[in-house]
Write a structure and sequence with these properties.
single chain, mainly alpha, MetI-like fold, 0% strand, transport, Carbohydrate ABC transporter permease
Length: 299
Amino acid sequence: MTTLATRPDLAPAPSTPGPSRPPGRVRIHRALVRATVTLIVVAQVYPLVWIFISSVRTPQDFAGGDPFAIPTDITFDNYARAFDVGNLGLNMVNSLVVTLGSSALIVLLGMMAAFALQVLGFRFSGLVRGMFLMGIIVPVQIALVPLFIDYSRIGLLDTYASMIIPLAGFSLPMAIYLFSSFYEYIPRETYEAASLDGAGPYRIFAQITLPLSLNTIVTVVMVNSIFIWNDFIFANTFVLSDDLKTVPLGLQNYIGAMGNVDWTATFAAVCVSITPLLLIFLVLNKAMIQGLESGATKG
């Protein structure tokens, strides 16, 4: 007698389990994470939106109404006044020169120092690396007076170099640390094979280390450009003329007599000054992700 147990074709099909639902604790955790991320995004985006809205309000509307309300009249004259009164265009050019010059020095010197310490190696290289890293904990304020005295003696006051040199110097320890950490993941066999082919240290640095370091270069430039563009302490100490004022110093030009501030023009100037930072962040953020992926594949 044939039964269902001996007839596979008549046996009931096994039941497929339905989609598993996460337990209640996991759902609560996800909801808390989403709520936290939403609050962080709102806290980061709201000031930018408020500054832009305030920059298109009329001075009378901003002074007489609620500064957090939706503007009744929209005007773009504040942007024209920001460039005319505050000399914003020249300030942005000065900030661009200082940022590019400092970033170039940081990347060049940081890469070469990390290559010598991590790849080439020499006696007491660990001690030298530790001395560089100690520079991270040194506050910039203790160097203002000695640098001012030295600059006044050698004629570097009120120059681009007076801002570029200290900005690059105080950013070098972190750059050396980032480059050294990345060089640890490059296989030593790569350098040994290049040496057997007759490549010297300069060729190895230019043809092997430099192309593989693009992700770290982007990271270093991204981090330091934001702080250099917003630097106030070095520019305020070493710049004496209006022709070399950077954006943070230029914003002081909107303070009139008796402390009166042209707030709407100030907000317009802030919107214009932070636009390059936002563009750099968006562009270099994608480049950094691509660089990390290519670096991981090559390494």
